[in-house]
Design a protein that fits this description.
This protein has 310 residues and is α+β, with helices and mostly antiparallel strands. It has a single domain, classed as Acyl-CoA thioesterase, double hotdog domain (Porin, Beta Barrel), CATH 2.40.160.210. It has helices spanning 14-24, 47-59, 143-146, 156-163, 202-212; strands at residues 26-29, 32-35, 66-74, 84-93, 97-106, 109-119, 168-172, 187-194, 234-245, 255-265, 268-277, 282-294. It has a twelve-stranded antiparallel sheet with strand order 1-2-4-5-6-3-9-12-11-10-8-7, with helices on one face. Strand 1 (26-29) and strand 2 form a beta hairpin.
Length: 310
């Protein structure tokens, strides 16, 4: 089930081609795989990369079935300078469904646990939530263009995240203001699309959507609190991530990522997301809870969360 680059991919955008290669993994034994990392400007290995690679490891052990859901817990921050080993437990292969458990390991310690379920394709009852009534992607600015006016006020790591060439375009429906402390409703919509055409491989498109589903999501839980990325100091880190695939889709066509946050408490925020095609079809849903710890500059910096230690 693992995606394989075709000859046409030799002409693919190099950043997207690199991401595909990153998600494919090296097979060490039947159920053991090795992955590398890329520094995209985040404080640790990007969570979407680890989830995407863990799903890829599970997919390597399943034949003729497609993933319909995954649930992951982030345990420790990832080291970008060390390989990640993925161990797959073939928990069950039933008549219609297969289940896999995956542990991502660095320096002899688990950094992520993931469970994924796969199903034989079949027809059944269907209904979907309606897509929000928002403007389409045409005419909206890419996130890279929006950030140009405030780059000198943004921390170096985040500056790289905003300016480096990325495998996806991100067009926010509402303009992004990195400096405002205005308290806003906890919701956001972003149009996303891969920067180049991709092979007709549903497994590959699932891997890439898993990767990109970790972008932007937790940030929606900060919107009601008036935090500024350029003026305030706070710690954010994903604690868990769940994703459900509802139907086949393509990430090289525009998808609306509609996000909201129903709650925040106990230094944690909960965020939800839905992916829609331009035609309004709901193709995937996701949820994530994350650490949101505000740092008071007048007090001693809080002790790092044990989960964030390498």
């Amino acid at each position: 089930m693992a995606a394989v680059l075709t000859a046409d991919a030799a002409r693919m955008h190099p950043v997207l081609e690199d991401l595909i290669a990153l998600l494919q993994l090296e097979r060490i034994e039947d159920n053991i795989f090795r992955g590398d990392s890329r520094d995209i400007g985040s404080p640790q290995v990007f969570g979407g990369q680890v989830i995407g690679q863990a799903l890829s490891a599970a997919q390597h052990t399943v034949d003729d079935r497609i993933a319909h859901s995954l649930h992951a817990y982030f345990l420790r921050r990832g080291d970008m300078d060390a390989p990640i080993i993925y161990e797959v437990d073939r928990a069950r292969d039933g008549g219609s469904f297969s289940n896999r458990r995956v542990v991502a390991i660095q320096h002899g310690r688990p950094i992520l646990n993931l469970a994924a379920s796969f199903q034989n394709p079949e027809k059944g009852l269907e209904h979907y939530a309606a897509m929000p009534d928002v403007p389409g992607p045409e005419g909206l600015q890419d996130l890279t263009d929006v950030a140009k006016g405030v780059l000198d006020k943004i921390p170096a790591k985040m500056r790289r995240y905003l300016t480096d060439k990325r495998p996806f375009e991100f067009r926010h429906v509402k303009p992004v203001n990195f400096e405002t402390r205005e308290k806003l409703p906890p919701q956001k919509q972003v149009w996303i699309r891969a920067v180049d055409k991709l092979p007709n491989d549903p497994v590959l498109h699932q891997n890439l959507l898993t990767y990109v589903s970790d972008y932007e999501l937790l940030g929606v839980a900060t919107l009601p609190h008036g935090l500024s990325f350029t003026r305030d100091s706070f710690i954010m880190a994903s604690l868990d991530h769940a994703l459900w695939f509802h139907r086949e889709f393509r990430v090289d066509e525009w998808l609306l990522y509609s996000m909201d946050s129903p709650a925040a408490s106990g230094a944690r925020g909960l965020a939800r997301g839905q992916f829609f095609t331009e035609n309004g079809d709901l193709i995937a849903s996701t949820t994530q809870e994350g650490l949101m710890r505000v740092v008071d500059p007048q007090r001693k910096k809080p002790r790092s969360d044990p989960r964030l230690q390498a």
